[in-house]
Amino acid sequence: MSTHTPLTVATLVVTTVAVVSGALVASLAYRAANRTASRELWLLSYGLAAIALGPLAGALGAVALGLDAESTLFVQGLLVAPGFALLVRSLYPAGRPVRA
């Protein structure tokens, strides 16, 4: 008997789409950082990669380690929270005045 409910399959599909599209955006930001040698774009690409890897790490923890939902969310948060911190840091370059 299969333990895959429709919700499990839908979660797998949505997580896969999120990880793949997040990785695509992160790789585009990485390529832009290489072209421009911009520190802000490097931080942006690292932040986007961390955010994209969050759901992947959570899903792997749930499937491979058998984590419950609460632990899975915690694992995701361990990557997503620093990823957003990197995004915020990339938007506020150090040493340059911010113009309105």
Concise synopsis of the structure shown:
The protein has helices at 6-36, 39-64, 69-91. The protein is an all-alpha fold and 100 residues long.
Tell me the domain tally: 1
Reading the helices and strands in chain order gives HHH
Q: Tally of extended strands? A: 0
Q: Report the β-strand fraction as a percent range.
A: under 5%
Helix content: over 70%
Would you tell me the overall average pLDDT?
A: 87
* Principal-axis shape: elongated
Structural class designation? mainly alpha
Number of helices: 3
User: How does the major sheet shape up?
Assistant: none
Q: Terminal Cα separation, in Å?
A: 61 Å
Low-pLDDT regions: none
Cα gyration radius (Å): 17 Å
Written overview of the protein:
This protein is mostly helical and 100 residues long. It has one domain. The chain is 80% helix and 0% strand. The chain has three helices and no strands. The protein has helices spanning 6-36, 39-64, 69-91. Helix 1 runs antiparallel to helix 2 and helix 2 packs antiparallel against helix 3 (69-91). The longest helix is centred in the first third of the chain and has 31 residues, at 6-36. The chain is elongated.
